[in-house]
Amino acid sequence: MILQIDAGNTRIKWRLLNGSQIVLQGNQLTASVLGGEPLQLLGVAALTQAQLSTVAGDAVVTNLSRQLHDQFGIALQVAEVSAQVGSVSCGYSVPEKLGVDRWMAVLAVFQQTGRASVVVDAGSAVTVDLITDDGVHQGGYIVPGIRLLQESLWKGTSQVKVDQSADGNMLDPGASTEQAVTRGCVLMLVALIERLGKEHNACLVITGGDGLLLKAQMEAQATYCADLVLDGLSVKGVSFSLGAHR
């Protein structure tokens, strides 16, 4: 059994694989593991391997490494960005500077599509990465996610204090401050994504907690994949280091 973990800034997702079949999965707040709580691996009796993609900091690696060593007697394999995996090359001059979550998503998408793609991860931040038809990762863009865009207005103005999730038709002008802020933030992100897809004549692939929301507002065809980062951990040739548990 292989445990795969995606530790993001807000949530940690995990799944248990038997071969290529998903047999269990779960998630919890990243803050809980940062605070010393174990990953709640309910129903997991034994493991042969554990893989992690994380952007959540060294404490998550240390805490998970200790748990897996003590609970299952295995070492945690921590995914790293490399210059090349198979036919996919990293677009950063210093590959280690690229977020590993972005790299995992890029690898997963190219394995699935084999063509030019715009890869969108809509989480706390929205990352957009470009891949060419021959597997060259060209780099990308990072912008605030919906919540961070809202918070920038809360902090920068005295009268705009809203906390509203998106609903209704985003193209209808907001009839309240709450709607105006939320719909404006969503459409800003949609416009960026669709412009890049059109400019590069590429397919759009979206993941992340706000991925379905953004996809629903697009005129362009887009594919939503819930677990691109976890999928990337399974790509042949991914580089791993061992997490320390002491």
From TrEMBL:
Binding-site residues for ATP, renumbered to this chain: 6-13, 124
UniProt keyword Transferase, yes or no: yes
Enzymatic class: transferase
Reaction(s) the record says it catalyses: (R)-pantothenate + ATP = (R)-4'-phosphopantothenate + ADP + H(+)
The record's free-text note on cofactor binding: A monovalent cation. Ammonium or potassium.
Family: Belongs to the type III pantothenate kinase family.
Protein name in the entry: Type III pantothenate kinase
Taxonomy of the source species: Bacteria, Pseudomonadati, Pseudomonadota, Gammaproteobacteria, Cellvibrionales
